[in-house]
Each structure stands twice: as C-alpha cells, then as structure tokens.
C-alpha cells in the first residue's frame, strides 16, 4: 500500500514539476523613445506578472518579472537604449532572487511611469508595456520654439563658404534705333548722351 501511494505521488510530481518550474520566455523586447515619453514593450506567449518600484537619488524604475527566463531578448535590452533617449539613461537586467528577473531603468530625470498589460492580438502575443513620462509634461509650443532656436544656432555655426571674386558682368549691347549701330550700354553714373551717327 505504501509503495502504491509513493508511486502515485511520484507520478503526480513528475507531471506537475515541469509545469510549475516552466518560465516565461520573452519573444521580443522593444524600446521606442519619443519627445513625449519612452515606451518599453516585452512580448511573450504568456501573461507576465510584475511589480514596479520607483527609487530616488538617483532616479530609477525597478520592474520585477515573476517566472521569466533571462534570455537574449532581455540581456540585449540595454543595447537598445540610445543617447538620444530623453528619459532613460540605461537598463540593467539580472536575477534578483529565484524565479524573479529584475530590470533596473536608470533615468535621466524624474519620471511618472505607467505600466499595463495587453492581450494577444493578430501576430502580437501578450505584452507588458511601460511608458516613461516626465513629471512635468512638455509644452508643444515651447518644444517647437526650442526646435527653431536649435536650428537657428545650428545654421549660425556652419562656416560660410570661401568668397570668390566675381567676374564683372558683360555690358549688354544696345542698338540705336536710328543708326542701327551697336553701342555698349554705359554705366548710369557716367551716363553720356548717345548721339546717332550721321
């Protein structure tokens, strides 16, 4: 009887453990920086369970991902952050504790994060989306004025081309109506009366 119960428990564990220990693979990780906000998207076949923390001095966002594999999509995420990103300075990814992967986003300024999940649609799987907004929203008119100032400063910093000596313009020929002789047009400052030939 004891052997039968032990075998039954062993068989149940054999089928249950792989499913319990299966982790979620991230199929795609995307970063989209824009003047208004930066968006980070993690895509997988299963829904991702997460916790979000904000830390100060220096400004950071921390996302703990439960039961997620540390795969190439996550390890390459740091290389997708460019210097031109207005809000995220860098991303670090690693194991926090067993079963938890931690993403740390080092920020350039204080931010107001918004995180949400999206269900699969068309060719996209489950998505975890993080939008990093500035605490003080950008005024579109001020941003346009700043762009104009930057373009003007850029144009002023471009050196002027080397000056070239202009060749004098050839004087057009004028035909006097009465004599049909060709005369050269004179400079108006040194104007002389043109007299038709006899």
How confident overall, as mean pLDDT?
80
Order of H and E elements: HEEEEHEEEEHEE
Alpha-carbon Rg, integer = 36 Å
Relative strand content: 35-45%
Helix content: 10-25%
**What are the segments in which pLDDT stays under 50 over at least 5 consecutive residues?**
16-20
- Based on secondary structure, the structural category is alpha+beta
Query: Gap between N and C termini, in Å?
Result: 145 Å
Shape by Cα distribution: elongated
Please, could you describe this protein's structure?
There is one protein chain. The strands form 3 sheets. A 4-stranded antiparallel sheet has the order 1-2-8-7, with no helix packed on it. A 4-stranded antiparallel sheet has the order 3-4-6-5, with no helix packed on it. The chain has helices at 2-21, 72-75, 140-157, and strands spanning 26-33, 38-44, 49-55, 60-66, 88-97, 100-107, 111-118, 126-134, 173-175, 182-184. It has 3 helices and 10 strands; from the N terminus they run αββββαββββαββ. The longest helix has 20 residues, at 2-21. It is 21% helix and 35% strand. It is elongated and about 120 Å long. The termini are far apart. Residues 16-20 have low confidence and may be disordered. The protein has 198 residues and is of the alpha+beta class.
